[in-house]
Structure formats: C-alpha cells, structure tokens
Amino acid sequence: MQGDETAWEEILEFTSPDEFRRFSAFIESAVGSGRLEEIPADSSRAIGPFGERWYRDLVGRTWRLTEPDFPYKGAFKLIEPR
Questions:
Q1: Which helix (H) or strand (E) holds 11?
Q2: Model's pTM, two decimal places?
Q3: Which residues, in sequence order, are CB contacts of 74 under 8 Å at separation 6+?
C-alpha cells in the first residue's frame, strides 16, 4: 500500500518467513490506525488448515491473511463476495 488508504494489493505468496512477519506487523499497524478492521473468519470459506485472519478495508472489501506452512508460502488475498 502506497499512500492511498484503499489501494491494498494481493500478495500471492510470501518469499520468506521474515517477509510474512514484517507484513503481519504492517497489518497490525493498519488495524491500530483504523485503515483495516479485523473481522471473524468464516470457517466455511477457509482455504485450508493454515492460520487465517480476515480484515475489512475502508471501502468494505474483505481480505484474508494466511500463515505460511511449508510448502504453502502464505498469502494476502481479496475474498470475493458470494
């Protein structure tokens, strides 16, 4: 995200555990400043056994952050509305 409070972009996979940790800290900062709201994850729409957290942005889009679990590298993806 670069300046625009609504310009979140998907991360299809993290390149390392450190990248995931840095991005998680960035997300927590965004929650703390009100740019994102953490919401309950819908377990019926989970993508697997990976740790998953959901967030809503300022324009109402829902995003999922999934933890890496080798060989899965984790992701930050937009959740399409049903």
A1: none
A2: 0.84
A3: 13, 14, 20, 50, 65, 66, 67, 68
- For the chain, the first-to-last Cα distance in angstroms comes to 25
CA distance 49 to 6: 29
Q: What distance in Å separates the CA atoms of residue 70 and residue 17, rounded to the nearest whole number?
A: 10
For residue 2, the model assigns a pLDDT of 45
Of 32, 50, 47, 48, residue with least CA distance to 79? 47
What gap in Å lies between CA 79 and CA 77, rounded to an integer? 6
- CA dist 47 and 63 (Å) reads 12
Q: Which of 58, 53, 68, 59 is nearest to 12 (CA)?
A: 68
User: How do beta strands 52-57 and 36-39 pair?
Assistant: antiparallel
Q: How do residues 57-82 score in pLDDT, each as one tens digit?
A: 999 999 999 999 888 899 999 998 65
